[in-house]
Design a protein that fits this description.
Elements (H helix, E strand, L loop, with lengths): L17 E5 L5 E6 H10 L3 E7 L3 E6 L1 H19 L3 E7 L4 H17 L2 E7 L8 H14 L4 E9 L3 E8 L3
Parallel strand pairs: 1-4, 5-6
Antiparallel strand pairs: 1-2, 3-4, 6-8, 7-8
Length: 171
C-alpha cells in the first residue's frame, strides 16, 4: 500500500527551540533559536523549512512554495527517467548488407541510451512466409550485434512479422 509523503515541517511546526540554520545560498549560519530564525526569514521573504535531522533539526531559509514545486519537478523527472522505451527496427529479407549495418548502428545507439529493441523481420511474399529463412536471417543479424544483450522471451512468429525483443546488458 502506498503511503502519502509527508510535507517538510516549516516555521512554527518545527518542534525544537534550537536549529542548525542554513541560508538560501547553502552557507551554514550555525545553531540559532527558532523564533529568531523565523523572524529573520519572514523579514527577508523566506520560510524556515526543515530539510534534515542531526543533533538539531537542520533547517534552510527558502521560499516554501518554490521548494515544493522543485520537489515535484524532481519527482516527475525521476519517474520519466525510469521509463523503459522499446524501439523497433524493421528488416526484410531483401535488406542489403550496408542497410543492415546502418540499422545495427541504430540498435547500438538505442542500447547506449538504455532502450530495449524489437527486431522485426517483415514477411510479405510466399518465400518470406517460410519460417526457417526468417530464423536464419534473424540469427545472422544477432551475430552481427557485438554489444552484450539479452533476449527477452523467445522469438515470435506472427502473420506479418518474425520478431524478437532485446535488452542491453548494462554493466
Amino acid at each position: 500500500m502506498l503511503q502519502k509523503q509527508k510535507k517538510p515541517l516549516m516555521n512554527e511546526q518545527i518542534g525544537s527551540d534550537k536549529i542548525l540554520l542554513i541560508d538560501n545560498n547553502g552557507e551554514k549560519l550555525g545553531i540559532k533559536s527558532l523564533s529568531e530564525s523565523i523572524y529573520s526569514a519572514s523579514s527577508n521573504g523566506f520560510d524556515v523549512v526543515q530539510v534534515g535531522v542531526s543533533d538539531f533539526p537542520v533547517c534552510k531559509l527558502i521560499n516554501y512554495n518554490k521548494f515544493l514545486m522543485d520537489q515535484k519537478k524532481k519527482k516527475k523527472e525521476n519517474i520519466n527517467k525510469n521509463k523503459i522505451k522499446t524501439k523497433e527496427v524493421r528488416f526484410n529479407l531483401n535488406t542489403s548488407d550496408h542497410d543492415i549495418k546502418v540499422k545495427i548502428d541504430r540498435i547500438y545507439d538505442f542500447f547506449n541510451k538504455g532502450d530495449r529493441v524489437k527486431i522485426c523481420i517483415s514477411k510479405k511474399g510466399c518465400r518470406d512466409k517460410n519460417i526457417n529463412i526468417s530464423q536464419k536471417f534473424l540469427s545472422n543479424i544477432l551475430k552481427m550485434i557485438e554489444l552484450p544483450y539479452s533476449e527477452i522471451g523467445d522469438p515470435v512468429n506472427s502473420d506479418q512479422y518474425y520478431y524478437v525483443n532485446l535488452a542491453p546488458n548494462i554493466s
